[in-house]
Design brief:
Blueprint (H helix, E strand, L loop, with lengths): L3 H15 L4 E6 L12 H5 L4 E7 L2 E6 L3 E5 L5 E5 L9 E7 L4 E5 L6 E5 L23 H8 L6 H6 L9 H11 L12 H20 L40 E5 L2 E5 L6
Antiparallel strand pairs: 1-6, 2-3, 3-4, 4-8, 5-7, 6-7, 9-10
The chain binds a DNA duplex (16 and 16 nucleotides) through helix 5.
Length: about 270
DNA sequence: ATGGGCACCTGGCTGC
DNA sequence: TGCAGCCAGGTGCCCA
């Protein structure tokens, strides 16, 4: 999916259009998401007002009066705002009907997305409680990254992809951040110096923020709440550019596989 | 505790 | 045209 920039772009769209509105109904068309959607959820959320729309890592949180809906977009999910009620199309999994007349619609071809509801503190929810600090907040800094990498034999790319260590960074932005920091994705995490960690933290932030400003990256399925794609793809430095010249030095960009995922890097810029 | 691999699912593209 | 094979923004879980 959707990595942090796409989720944050979605959050902003939903906040703009749905915060303060009241839920009229939840229509679940297909319960078979990553985990079966709780059949009691429609009755629980109906009639509640959406107080706020938040994000934790790649999860969207709809804070209601008496609980919180926890939504994940998976690999191929998107959440759109539609004016009025429109007919269900392929892969539309659920609709949140608002009293204003608008519809919040979740579409997810691969059904890796998820939807939960909790009346407890969402931070303590099983899916959220072990997540690393937010990458755009102060807790994610050079000290933190240096500390957690000291005994890690795994490659730094794998550490960036591990949600218990670093959140929000997925396959695209892991490659992008490492390129910006001039660090090889294969480098053992514990081989990063303090200066490397400081540079990588800045690079992660810069990559995520730049993508947020462009409305995220659309490779295939992702669209923002207005139905438009994100425009960051054309500004990617390295992702999906194997065989093409590095934008900085002209060397041929390489693709390797790490943890069954593609990694892109420049063999001469990144050490 | 850490790391590696698998699983979940649909669809688009490539090459024979 | 058809079909097999590979690839795709994630992440929980099981096993060594």
């Amino acid at each position: 999916m959707p990595e942090l920039p796409e989720v944050e772009s979605t959050r902003r769209g939903i906040e703009r259009e749905a915060a303060g509105k009241r839920i009229q109904a939840l229509h679940i068309h297909d319960h078979r998401l990553r985990w079966p959607v709780d059949r009691h959820m429609p009755a629980e959320v109906s009639g509640q007002q959406i107080i706020a729309v938040e994000r934790r890592a790649k999860y969207l949180l709809l804070r209601l009066e008496r609980g919180t809906m926890i939504l994940h977009l998976g690999m191929s999910g998107s959440l759109r705002i539609l004016p009025g009620r429109s007919p269900r199309l392929k892969h539309d999994q659920f609709d949140l009907l608002l009293e204003s007349g608008d519809t919040l619609r979740f579409n997810d071809p691969r059904r890796f997305g998820s939807l939960h509801y909790t009346s407890e503190d969402p931070a303590q929810h099983k899916l959220l409680r072990s997540l690393a600090p937010e990458p755009l907040e102060p807790g994610f800094d050079a000290d933190y990254l240096h500390r957690i990498t000291r005994k890690r034999r795994a490659a730094i790319k794998q550490v960036l992809m591990n949600g218990r260590l670093v959140t929000g960074v997925g396959n695209i932005y892991a490659s992008e951040a490492l390129f910006r920091a001039r660090i090889s994705p294969r480098r053992g995490a514990r081989r990063l110096s303090r200066a490397d960690c400081a540079r990588l933290v800045r690079s992660v932030r810069a990559a995520l923020n730049a993508a947020i400003r462009a409305g995220g990256t659309t490779l295939r399925d992702y669209v923002g709440t207005d139905g438009n794609p994100g425009y960051f793809r054309q500004r990617l430095y390295i992702y999906e550019r194997a065989g093409r010249p590095c934008r900085v030095c002209g060397s041929e960009v390489r693709r390797i596989t790490q943890g069954q995922r593609s990694t892109y890097y420049c063999p001469s810029c990144q050490v």
